[in-house]
Amino acid sequence: MPFLIDGYNLLRAVQKIDVYADLTEAQLCCYLADFLRVVKDRGTIVFDGIGPPDKRELMSVIGLEIHFSGERSDADTVIEWKIEENTAPRRLAVVSSDRRLRSAAARRKCKSIPTDVFWPAMCKALEAASQTPAEPPEKRAGITAGEADVWMKLFELDASSPTPDGIEEECDK
After folding, report:
1. Whole-model pTM?
2. Where are the beta strands (DSSP E) in the chain?
3. How far is CA 168 from CA 41, 154, 160, 165, 173, in A?
4. Which of 111, 124, 115, 134 is nearest to 39 (CA)?
5. N or C: more exposed end of the chain, with fewer CB within 10 A?
6. DSSP state letter for 51
7. Overall domain count for the chain
8. Are residue 152 and residue 78 in the same domain, yes or no?
């Protein structure tokens, strides 16, 4: 389910949490990009205005489309337009606590997620992903020849025999 996020609405809500009081646009976007990678989805965030003069930090974020509304529009208008233009609105999740955007999402039957619900859920998903151990490379590579020999001896199997002794008789019963 692609996410369409009201940038400053989410940022201001998150900044009310003490540990995130100094969170910047770029840091927020990095968290969101990590989340989208974990849930294997895509997302777009829209901020009001033209953004910071130096956008290098934002340009380095991978996996999240970042838009600024410009001087002649606002993020809410851009997000409403994106909701209207979406070809699969029932699959779209709009993240905002703004009444105007929640109404626009409801009109198109998008999933609407308030920022105070989205952020804790996102943090929980990121935490769970960080605690999941990575698969060992051996899992995909298979066992070594030496390990195979150990198992063959343990089960008293002959490597030249295509099937263990007596298995055909057991299967025919």
Report:
1. 0.76
2. 3-6, 43-47, 65-68, 93-95, 111-113
3. 49, 21, 16, 8, 9
4. 124
5. C
6. -
7. 2
8. no
